[in-house]
Amino acid sequence: MADARRVIVAGASGYAGALAAELVHRHPALELMAATARSDVGTPLNELYPQYTAPVALRELDLDQIEDADAAIVAYPHGASAPVVAAMRGLGLKVVDLSADFRLRDLPTYERWYGPHGEPDLLDGAVYGLTELNREAIAGAELVANPGCYPTATLLALAPLAEAGLIEDVVIDAKSGVSGAGRGAAEPMEVIKRTDDSKAYKVGAHRHTPEIVQELTALAARGASPNGALPVTFVPHLMPFDQGELVSCYVRTTRPVEDSELKRLYGAAGAAEGLYAGERFVEMRADPPGVAEVRDTNLCRICVVADPDVSRVMAFAAIDNLWKGAASQAVQNLNLILGLPEGEGIS
Predict the structure, then answer these.
(1) Residue pLDDT, tens place only, 183-204
(2) In whole angstroms, what is the distance from residue 134 CA to residue 64 CA?
(3) What values do phi and psi take at 87, rounded to 5?
(4) Is the pLDDT of residue 181 over 60?
(5) How far apart are CA 93 and CA 122, in angstroms?
(6) Do residues 37 and 84 touch, judged by C-beta distance below 8 A?
(7) By three-state DSSP, how is residue 119 classified?
């Protein structure tokens, strides 16, 4: 592929980074120039993860050897990612970052939830990478902050309501497979699977909460400007399966809403208008979706139901947390910033 865009995947030993490297490796218009890691150096990716085909051996990141790259996907933990992203940007690479380091636009909010920021000067130039809601800005970006998995499903489920000024408050009941905890938590997560258990965690303290609040509030400001941040209650749960994520959102609306209006807002049932009309990777369903039906895809499937008697709307969304919630959405964003067809390599 003489004209292929050369891509580095940094942090390719973790679940999301490994999948990102695999997707880049088999992408028809990209060349996986290197897959780097801070552990398992020297191990071929297809040995570390036998379900993948990329034979490239993991190596340590050497910034002196990546000047010929066009772009990078960085899959480091928060805090560790920022300096690596800054160094890559200094070399002129376009970057999609999977950490939380550039998702929150307000520095004090980031520091409250994550601690000191290593590269705060880059915050203003970062574009939030929820592709369906921010496509034009992403296409012109040089640094894209890939959303968290829970915010991806939640924001896609709620965006039409937020833009229409219909959210008075919302309770989000979110459920994820154990891969959402990351490779570092593999052993305790296996206990969840072996015991067929499920439990809520980080109640009232999950770091995806400010990201959800930030983006819902921004969406609401596009239409009817809210009085401050929208009230959000977010409760995540771990489930005894590997991959997949389901969010069930219970919205108290600002006025009664009928199902016919929801279909118009969301672009359901083949509607010519609505936020998701014509979207390739967002599918509206008449019944609530399950996680198995979207596994190993970049799809988000949504069902929304009105209960006008109590001024409530119920919105459900299912994604694969490693794909649309991380790696395939990163490739979707990478396609945009490199001027490639958005769905190339992930369809």
Answers:
(1) 554 545 565 555 677 788 888 8
(2) 33
(3) -65, -40
(4) no
(5) 14
(6) no
(7) coil
In degrees and rounded to multiples of 5, residue 124 shows phi and psi of -65, -30
Token pair belonging to 72 = 């990078």
How far apart are the C-alpha atoms of 120 and 107, rounded to whole Å? 7
pLDDT digits (tens, 9 = 90+) for 92-143: 999 999 999 999 999 999 999 999 999 999 999 999 999 999 999 999 999 9
State which amino acid sits at residue 145.
A
For the residues of 9-56, what is the DSSP string, one character each? EESTTSHHHHHHHHHHHT-TTEEEEEEE-SSSTT-BHHHHSTT----P
> What structural domains does the chain harbor?
5-125 (3.40.50.720), 150-321 (3.30.360.10)
Active-site residue list: 149
* Contact indicator for 183, 14 with CB cutoff of 8 Å: yes
Tokens of 41: 């150096």
Reported as a single tens digit per residue, the pLDDT across 56-69 is: 999 999 988 887 99
The order of strands in the sheet holding 300-307 is: 199-200, 232-238, 167-176, 245-253, 312-319, 300-307, 282-284
> How far from the centroid of its chain's Cα atoms is residue 336's Cα?
15
Q: Yes or no: say if 146 and 326 are a contact pair by the CB < 8 Å rule.
A: yes
CB atoms closer than 10 angstroms to residue 57:
17
Q: What is the pLDDT of residues 245-293, one digit of tens each?
A: 999 999 999 999 999 999 999 997 666 689 999 999 999 999 999 999 9
Check residue 67 and give its pLDDT: 79
Task: Tell me the backbone φ, ψ of residue 74, rounded to 5 degrees.
Answer: -110, 120
Cβ neighbours of 42 (radius 10 Å): 9
Query: Beta 30-36 vs 5-10: how paired, if at all?
Result: parallel
